Amino acid sequence: MRAAALQYVRKVSGFRAPAAHNQEVFDRAVAEIADATHRLLDGLEIRGAAARA
């Protein structure tokens, strides 16, 4: 998830690597997007899928 979030933040920001003064906000965005992605995938319900053991 983190790799996908990092790719997204790089694409949206236009920076492959942020300047030192932007590192904190860049890293926070990556973490928040990764967390949101985890919540999304955890919350999806797939109809007809066998119950998880």
Strand content: under 5%
Summed over residues and divided by their number, the pLDDT gives a mean of 93
Characterize the biggest β-sheet: none
Rg is 15 Å
Number of strands: 0
The chain-level structural class is mainly alpha
Helix content: 55-70%
Number of helical segments?
2
Ends apart, CA distance between termini: 23 Å
Task: Report the uncertain regions.
Answer: none
SSE run: HH
Instruction: Write down the oligomeric state.
Output: single chain
SSE diagram, text form:
Layout: H1 2-13, H2 23-43
Describe the structure.
- The protein is an all-alpha fold and 53 residues long.
- The chain has 2 helices and no strands.
- The protein has helices at residues 2-13, 23-43.
- The longest helix is centred in the middle third of the chain and has 21 residues, at 23-43.
- The model has no long low-confidence stretch (mean pLDDT 93).
Structural descriptors:
62% helix; 53 residues; elongated; mainly alpha
In short:
This protein is an all-alpha fold.
